[in-house]
Specification:
The chain has about 350 residues and is of the alpha+beta class. It has 2 domains: about 160 residues, Aminopeptidase (3-Layer(aba) Sandwich), CATH 3.40.630; about 170 residues, Aminopeptidase (3-Layer(aba) Sandwich), CATH 3.40.630.30. About 40% of the residues lie in helices and about 25% in strands. β13 and β14 form a beta hairpin. The protein is globular and about 60 Å long.
């Protein structure tokens, strides 16, 4: 029999999550508190216990938007998805809660692989577990979400190989650029809390250059400082002659290390600091015992018109495996209200 209860202690929550398949940084206690502080989301953390052992966890974040309520389980729930009875029981609980709280939609985004390799290529391999999960969700009335908040696709590097094998697996061009940085006196050092304003300054520069949204410093203070203090984030800075020219910020938990943030200045880019940083990040993650380095983000459509195509070209040179996840799925407690929400909200956002 499955016992369901809420967990209210950080250490207990993270310890249970760490032992589950697909444990993701976005399901940690810290991420729930980050969303509370920066977006007004209210976390509720459910543990599912069977035979005295935690077999699933789901950190739900709820928010009120005017007269409406929504709920999301970012990159979760975490559980053994090969167990169909367990999957069904967890979905039952989530659906009942959505109905009880009267949310317009409940969104889940399990960190479950649907397929690997480029679609329709000779390396395209479907995952039986992911395909079964998507079929189950469809049968239960869940809808593939039109709002995919997190990246569905990414590139993952297996860190269980030795450093020489990791370097040899890179494309020749990428390997050459990694070495260029060393030859051109690029130095890599760990960042400290005192470097947070510098990290933000570089991020602002990158945002202006590449045209993406930059939030206020306070937002990144929460996103970076709190996770660094909790031992769940690590930043590296590339310098030339003592001047910072690029950085990466890594988040890590369970068996994975994620490349979440990266930035560079507008000068000395020919020294290839971004390539050197990625290589140092992989070596650091491997030394910490992580099995996978997740480059966090690949195109939805693998064509040049996709906004991530340029970033993808950079990342693919490190020769990670292309992983395509099942993506986000919505459960609507009221199909009519859900349809109305889906029609109106995009228009309101466009007007805003």
């Amino acid at each position: 029999m499955l016992k369901v209860y809420e967990v209210e202690e950080r250490e207990r929550w993270n310890a249970g999550l760490r032992g589950l398949p697909g444990a993701h940084i976005l399901q940690t206690w810290e991420w729930g508190e980050f969303k509370r502080a920066t977006g007004g989301w209210q976390p509720r953390r459910l543990a599912f216990e069977r035979g005295g052992r935690i077999v699933a966890q789901a950190s739900l974040a709820a928010k009120t938007l005017g007269p409406l309520k929504v709920m999301v389980v970012s990159k979760g729930p975490a559980l053994y998805y090969a167990d169909p009875d367990l999957v069904g029981a967890v979905l039952d609980e989530l659906e009942q809660r959505a109905k009880r709280f009267g949310v317009v939609w409940l969104k889940i985004d399990p960190d479950v692989v649907a397929a690997t390799g480029l679609p329709s290529s000779e390396n395209d391999r479907a995952s039986d577990m992911g395909q079964r999960l998507m079929s189950k969700l469809q049968r239960r009335g869940w809808r593939f979400s039109g709002s995919q908040v997190q990246f569905r696709n990414t590139l993952c590097i297996d860190l269980r190989r030795c450093e020489d094998e990791l370097l040899a697996a890179m494309s020749g061009n990428t390997r050459r650029k990694v070495r260029v940085a060393t030859k051109k006196d690029v130095m890599i050092r760990p960042a400290t809390m005192d470097d947070l304003p510098l990290l933000y300054q570089l991020y602002q520069t990158t945002g202006r250059r590449d045209g993406f949204l930059i939030r206020p410093l306070q937002y990144y203070q929460h996103a970076w400082r709190k996770f660094m203090e909790a031992g769940l984030a690590h930043a590296l800075i590339a310098e030339y002659q003592g001047v910072a020219i690029a950085h990466v910020i890594l988040f890590h938990f369970g068996q994975k290390c994620w490349y979440f943030y990266g930035a560079s200045s507008n000068v000395e880019r020919g020294r290839m600091p971004n390539y050197a940083l990625q290589w140092e990040a992989m070596k650091w993650a491997k030394a910490q015992g992580y099995a996978t380095y997740d480059l966090w983000g690949a195109p939805d459509k693998f064509e040049e018109s996709d906004s991530l195509w340029g970033v993808y070209q950079f990342k693919r040179g490190f020769r990670g495996q292309l992983v395509r996840h099942v993506g986000a799925w919505d459960f609507a407690s009221s199909p009519t209200l859900y349809y109305t929400y889906q029609q109106l909200v995009p228009r309101l956002l466009k007007l805003m």
